[in-house]
Every structure is written in C-alpha cells, then in structure tokens.
Design goal:
The complex is a heterodimer.
Chain A: H1 2-28, H2 58-86, H3 88-110
Helix pairs in contact in A: 2-3
Chain B: E1 2-4, E2 7-8, E3 11-12, H1 13-47, H2 63-73, H3 84-100, E4 108-113, E5 119-124, H4 132-153, H5 157-188, H6 193-198, H7 215-230, H8 242-245, H9 255-280, H10 296-317, H11 323-352
Parallel strand pairs in B: 1-4
Antiparallel strand pairs in B: 2-3, 4-5
Helix pairs in contact in B: 1-2, 1-9, 1-10, 2-9, 3-4, 3-9, 4-5, 5-7, 5-11, 7-9, 7-11, 9-10
Chain lengths: ~120, ~375
C-alpha cells in the first residue's frame, strides 16, 4: 500500500508542477484578444461551419474490436504470472482462450472491419 | 557500491528514499526534456546536412530553454469557438499520466548496509508497485484521452481529424504492445518492474530480449515498433502530420498549453523507452559482470538515451506511413506476430521448465540410492 502512496505523491507533485507553470505563465503573459485573432484556424479563410459534425464510422469499428482484445489482455496478465504454479491445464486453457479470440479476429478481418477506406 | 544506512536526526535513509526518488526522477525528466529537444534538432540537422541550432549558448545548447521562455511569455489565444472546460483540461489530462507513469520506473538497485554487515538491495524507485507494468500500460493509454479531447474541444476540423486518427492509432498499437509486454511478463514471471529487472541480472544473454530465442527478440521488435506508434512519433506521426493536418490536435493551442503537449511528447518518449529498457534490455543491469563497477543508474540512463537516439534516427530516416498501411501493419501484422510469440513462449516454457519446479505438474521421483544424488525426471509429462 505504501508504494501506491508514494506513487500518488509523485503524481500530485507532478500536477503541482503543471498547475504552477500554467499559473505563473498566466500572470506573466500579455493578453490582447480581438475577434479576428480568436477565429478558428482554417488556413486563412473564414471557417465553414464548425467541426462538431459526423465523422467516419470506421473509427468506432476499430474501437469495438479493440475493446474485445483489451479485455482479453486484462485476463491474460494474471495468468502470465500464475501459470507456472497452475500446471498444464493453465496453458491449455490459455490456448483455447486465445484460439477463440483469434477466430473472432479472423471474422472481423473477413468482414472487412480491419480495412481502412 | 555499498551505501551505509546513515541517518540525519530522526530520519533514516530508507525512510526518505522514496521522497528523494520523487524529486530526482521528476527533476531529471523535466530537465532532460530541453536537452532532448536540442539533441533532436542537432541530430536531424546533422543527418539532413544543415547547421541546426547554433546561436543560443554554446553549440546552441540553450536553444530549447530560450524556446521555453518564449512560450512561457507568449499571449494565450483562446479561440471563440472552443468548448472551454475540455479545451483547458486536455493538456493537463495528457501531461499527468506521462509524469505519473515515471513513478514505477526502476532506476537502480542500491546496495545499502543495514548495519552488522547485512547488505540489502533496495530499488531506487518512487513506488515499487507489485502490478507496475499494468500501472504503466494503464497510464500510457490514458494519454489518448488528452489527445482526443484536445482535438474535439478545439472545434477545428484539423484538430478533430488529428484527435480521431490518434485515438484509432493508439488503441491499435496498444494491443500489439500489450501482447508483447505480456510475453515479457511471462519470461520474467512477475508484473513488478523491480522483479522483472532483477530476473535479468547477469550478462546480455540473461536479458529478456535474448531469452526464448527467437521469441524474446520478436516480442522486443514488436514492442519497439508499437512504442514509436504509441508516442505518435515519426513515421507514425499521422495525428500531427503537418503537411495535411497543419499541426493536428494542437493546432488551436498556444503559449504554455502548447508547451504542455510538447513536453508531454518528450516525457512519454522517456517513459516508454524506460519501460523498454526495464522489460527487454536488463534495466540497470550491466551487459557483462566485468562492467559491474559502473553504477546501475548509469546503465539505465545510457540505455534510455540510446532509445531516444534511435527515435530521432528513425524519424530522420523513414517516411510517414499512409493511414491504411498504418492500420494494416498494426492489426494484420504486429498483432498476430505478438500473439504467436506469446503462445509459443508459454508452450515452450511449460515444456522446458523442470517438473519439480511446478506444483501442479506430475513429479516422478527416481529411486533413491544412498550413494547417488537424487535424480528427478526433468520433462515428466
């Protein structure tokens, strides 16, 4: 538990550094806004509409396949540490687990989820 | 090098060691960043046959500091179309995980005289967390939130494209990276960073890259490719591809908030190189016992710096990938290779390890002779 405490203290120290630099910079820097300066940058011309609109659905597909594999990885970590104590069944179980996932991965590939257009 | 467990007043060395680690590691990371920027610019200039920074300070060494001061004093432009809360939170959200991840990097093993001739090895690390590698993977993947939120909150098409690309790229390569790291955990038999490094003591042949050849080597290569993609560095720098997306997700950022993104890139390069060092290249261990007189932290820093040099070299050498090629490399090449390395390593380890080392495995006792040492079947199945 102590190790987590020092890790948390490290994070807090880091955050304090970030916050202080942002704050000091805020005090020191000039501020002279005008409407033209605050316009969204679109290479010079006035921006056409805003950016909060529909985007390529394909990003979601990758995210879905990712979630499946990442959950798998979360299961495999405890296994990787413990399998030396658990005997041959642990290896066999993992092989079945990975084989099932590979089947899903092959299906996703075949259905074109991994292709980028 | 044995350090006595001295005490100043009521404070013992062991009690203050974590605090010393906090200050040194944070300080080194933050102070090293300007030199990395300088090194990168000089090395790129050298490779591209131009001069590079040479005006500010000797050999341009202070150029990065000058840039930092400039960014510090620049006006902060707050575009009118942004989602303010998220816009301001994004750089901090990106910087905190990059710094927090350093907390579990094992820098060195200090040999401390506990009194009475008892010497103990105490790791120089902020938090010797027993799931260190999971902590690291979790925090490095948290950075994607910073990027995608920065892209979204800027309300700029270039930023949005950069943020989306980055999120898709990071999650794709994170899988290969996770699988490669899993192979390393399997070889070392622990998720504790310090234990992983200690299991590689000895010579180069004891480093994880050289174990289960060629599987350890393959997993290392997968990790090294994925690590470049994770940090959004060339040739995988599509989120900020300047020729098509202006500056990607940080197009609308200026002043110190831009500097945060900039520092974050270098901090995460250092962290992820540190993980590569600890996981595959022996961490603080020297390549040969004859070189053991060099302190551990020197080896660690040398190895990390070597990785950063490779980063710059790769950036100067390879052209940027096309986006579909990038996704295909991650999903169709690296992922199956990393999974295969994992499965083969597990099977090999199961077959190889002597049966008496595993509790669940059948152990065949050889007949016990009085004049012979006890022999045990090593591969009883």
């Amino acid at each position: 538990m102590n190790a987590y405490l020092t890790a948390a203290m490290f994070t807090i120290t880091g955050f304090a550094f970030i916050a202080s630099t942002l704050l000091i910079s805020r005090i020191l820097r000039p501020s002279a806004p005008n409407p033209d300066k605050l316009e969204t940058y679109e290479c010079g011309p006035l921006p056409v509409g805003d950016a909060w609109r529909q985007f390529n659905l394909h990003y979601y597909l990758f995210a879905l396949v990712f979630v499946v594999f990442d959950v798998e990885a979360a299961f495999l970590y405890p296994w990787a540490v413990a399998f030396k104590l658990e005997g041959p069944y642990a290896v066999a179980e993992m092989l079945i687990f990975v084989a099932l996932l590979l089947a899903g991965w092959a299906y996703a590939w075949k259905r074109g989820a991994l292709e980028w257009e | 090098m044995v350090i006595p467990n001295f005490s100043i007043g009521p404070l013992h060395l062991l009690d203050v060691l974590p605090y010393v680690a906090i200050v040194t590691i944070l300080g080194v990371i933050l102070l090293l960043t300007p030199f990395l920027v300088w090194y990168e610019r000089v090395a790129l200039a050298l490779i591209q046959d131009r001069l590079g920074p040479n005006r500010v300070g000797p050999r341009g060494l202070l150029q990065a500091f000058a840039d930092g001061i400039k960014l510090f004093l620049k006006e902060d432009i707050r575009p009118s179309a942004i989602d303010a809360t998220i816009y301001y939170a994004a750089p901090v959200l990106m910087m905190i995980p990059a710094l927090a991840a350093c907390a579990v990097l094992p820098v060195a093993d200090l040999r401390i005289d506990m009194g009475g001739g008892r010497i103990e090895a105490i790791p120089f690390v902020v938090g010797n967390v027993n799931i260190g590698i999971l902590y690291l993977l979790g925090l490095t993947s948290l950075q994607v939130y910073g990027i995608v939120l920065a892209g979204w909150a800027s309300n700029n098409k270039y930023s949005l494209m950069g943020g989306l690309r980055s999120s898709a790229q990071t999650i794709s390569y994170e899988l290969s990276m996770t699988m490669a790291v899993l192979t390393g955990v399997l070889i070392s038999g622990s998720t504790n960073m310090v234990e992983i490094v200690r299991s590689q003591a000895g010579t180069v042949a004891d480093w994880n890259i050289a174990k289960f050849l060629p599987l350890g080597f393959i997993a290392t290569v997968v990790y090294l490719i994925a690590m470049v993609a994770e940090t959004n560095r060339a040739p995988f720098d599509l989120p900020e591809a300047e020729s098509e997306l202006v500056a990607g997700f940080h197009t609308e950022y200026s002043s110190m908030k831009f500097a945060m993104f900039f520092m974050c890139e270098y901090a995460s390069m250092l962290v992820i190189s540190g993980v590569a060092t600890a996981l595959w290249f022996g961490g603080w261990n020297s390549p040969h016992p004859a070189l053991n007189f060099v302190p551990g932290f020197v080896w660690f820093i040398l190895k990390v710096v070597a990785f950063v040099m490779v980063y710059v070299w790769v950036r100067a050498t390879l052209p940027r990938l096309r986006y579909d090629a990038l996704m295909a490399l991650g999903w169709k090449r690296l992922l199956p290779i990393a999974l295969a390395a994992l499965v083969l390593t597990a099977t090999w380890d199961a077959v190889r390890t002597p049966a008496d080392k595993k509790s669940g495995w059948p152990v065949i006792e050889a007949p016990h002779d009085a004049d012979k040492p006890v022999a045990r079947a090593s591969n009883a199945r």
